[in-house]
Amino acid sequence: MNITSLNASSYNFTSIQDFRRQDQDRMTIVAAVFLIFSGIGLMGNLTVFWFLCFKIQRNKYTVYFMNLSAADALLETVAVMTLILNIVGYQSPKLQFNGVASFNLSLTILYYAMIYIGMYLLTSISTERCTSVLFPIWNTVHRPKNLSTIMCCFAWALGSLESLLDNFVCGPSLWQITANCFPIGVMNFVLAVGICLPLMIISSLFLLIKIGKTFRQRYPPKLYIIIIVAAIMFTLSVLPLNTIRFLLLCKLIPSNLLPISTVAPCEFWMIVNSALNPIIYVLIGRRWDQGSCFSIRDNLHRAFSLDNAE
Q: Which domain, by its residues, includes 167?
C-alpha cells in the first residue's frame, strides 16, 4: 500500500470537507441577513395593510396599495419560511422532513404568484393614474365605481394562474427550460417585458413630465412619486429575472452553466424590494417640517390622498 498516496487522498478529502463547510457557513450568513430583511418587510407590509384596511379612508388607489401590501406580505412570509429551511439545511444537511418536497413546491407556487400579482397591480395603478390625468372627464364621469376592486381581483386570478402553469407545466425548477415549458416561457416574457413593463415605464415617464410641469407652481402629489418609485424598483427587480429566463428560453445560456451567483441576487432583490415598499410609503408621505411628529397613519394618509380635483 502506498502510504504517501493514502495521506494525499485523506488531505484532499479533508480540504474538500473544509471548503464545503466554509461555503455552507457563508450561505448561512447571507440567508440570515436576508431573513432579517424579510422579517422587517413582513411587519412593515402587515402594518401598511392594517392602516389602509381599517384606519384610513378608502379611495380607488388605497384599494390597489392595500392589495399590493398583502401580496408583499405573503411574499415575505414565503421568504421567511424558505430562508429558515435553507439555514437548517445548511447546518444540518442530513436532517430530513416528511413532505418537504410538496411543501417546497407550495412555497414556490405562492412565491411566484405574489411576484406576478405585484406586477399586475403596479401596472394597473400606474396605468390608471396616467389615464386619469390624460382623460379627467372620463375619470370623473364614466369610470366604473368598482374598477379598482375588479382590477385587483383580475390581478390575483391571473397571477395565481400564471404561477400554477409555471410550476405544473415547467416543473419545480423554473430555470430548466423544456419543450413543454417553451409556450409558458414565451407567455411569461410577453406579459412581463412586452406588456406590463412598457406600460409602467410609459406611465411613469408621463407622470414625471407632469411633475416637471407643475413643480414650480405647487409640490406634486405624493401619490405620483410613490407610483414612479415603486414602478422603477419593481422594474429593476423583474427585468433581470425575465431577461435571464428569456436567454435560457432561446438557448443563449446553457442551463447547466447558469451560476447561482446570477440568479440568487435577482431573487434576493425581490425580497428587499418588497421590504422597502412600506418604508417608501411612509417616507414620501411624511412632512419634514421642523418639529412635526411622526405618525404612520398621517404619513400614509398624505401619501395616498387624491388630488383636490378627484
A: 10-303
Quote the CA–CA distance of 176 and 81 in Å, as a whole number.
24
Question: Could you tell me if residue 2 is inside a domain?
Answer: no
In a domain, 309, yes or no: no
Q: Is residue 4 part of a domain?
A: no
3-class secondary structure, 266: helix
CATH number at residue 251: 1.20.1070.10
Task: Indicate the residue type of 140.
Answer: T
The pTM of the full predicted model, rounded to 2 decimals, is 0.85
pLDDT at residue number 6: 35
Max avg pLDDT among 10-24, 64-78, 169-183, 187-201: 64-78
Most confident segment among 184-198, 233-247, 251-265, 292-306: 184-198
What is the total count of domains within the chain? Answer: 1
Q: In whole angstroms, what is the distance from residue 40 CA to residue 44 CA?
A: 6
Are the CB atoms for 116 and 157 separated by under 8 Å?
no
Joined together, the cell numbers standing for residue 57 give 379612508
Do residues 155 and 120 lie in contact, with contact meaning Cβ atoms separated by under 8 Å? yes
Q: Rounded to an integer, what distance in angstroms lies between the CA atom of residue 83 and that of residue 36? A: 10
